[in-house]
Amino acid sequence: MDLGIRGKRALVCASSKGLGRGCAEALAEAGVDLVMNARGAEALEETAQAIRDRWQVSVTTVAADIVSEDGRARVLKEAGDVDILVTNAGGPPPGMWSDWGREDFIKALDANMLTPIALMTALMPKMIDKGWGRVVNITSVSVKSPVAVLGLSNSARTGLTGYVAGTSRQVAPKGVIVNNLLPGIHATDRADSLDGAVVKSKGISLEEARAERYATIPAGRYGTPEEFGQMCAFMCSQHAGFMVGQNILLDGGASNMTM
User: In b/e form, how buried is each residue of 23-36, taking b as 16+ CB within 10 angstroms?
Assistant: First the structure.
């Protein structure tokens, strides 16, 4: 399918690896020029060069912490008047309700709610001026199905979801389409870390740990960054103009719910 976005320009955050890289790759395949951001300069440039070589698109890299004001300012300076924004940031640590104080919540809100909002606030006016734009926020399955040990993430990402629900309907008449993409478990470093923790806690093999988790997913496997990226690219495409303020769940059926 021709996504109709060849020649557009996108900012993809946290895109040196994992789901962010999957989104950057899929957009590049569709002919989109990229501004890629991540904290680690070496991994970021390695990924960017691989994308340049494979898809022959322009890729600008900005190694910076998108959550910090200085890092975000540097990224926004390079982004300029991008047509597409994909927000992404790592989630806060797990724990119990009794573990967290005010500062823990402030950090979670800053990374997983306020930073995406700041990026949208900075970039959407230029999209509105052009009469076309796409925003995809990578959030989490926990927005639909809260995870008990991820209370910080549950709170911050749900706050972002509420913001998007209202804001997306305000900017849609101007041609700017905003939606959220909610990943379940995918084959990334995060899944490796989770599985490794199970190995240590239960004294089982990595294969056994993964088999246990696979059994909780109707699809019988983890998602891939590639298929996640293709969904993101579709949500950024010309064909997604009637999808406004939605939360698209990609979890292999693990969350058992009607809506």
Answer: bbbbbbbbbbbbbb
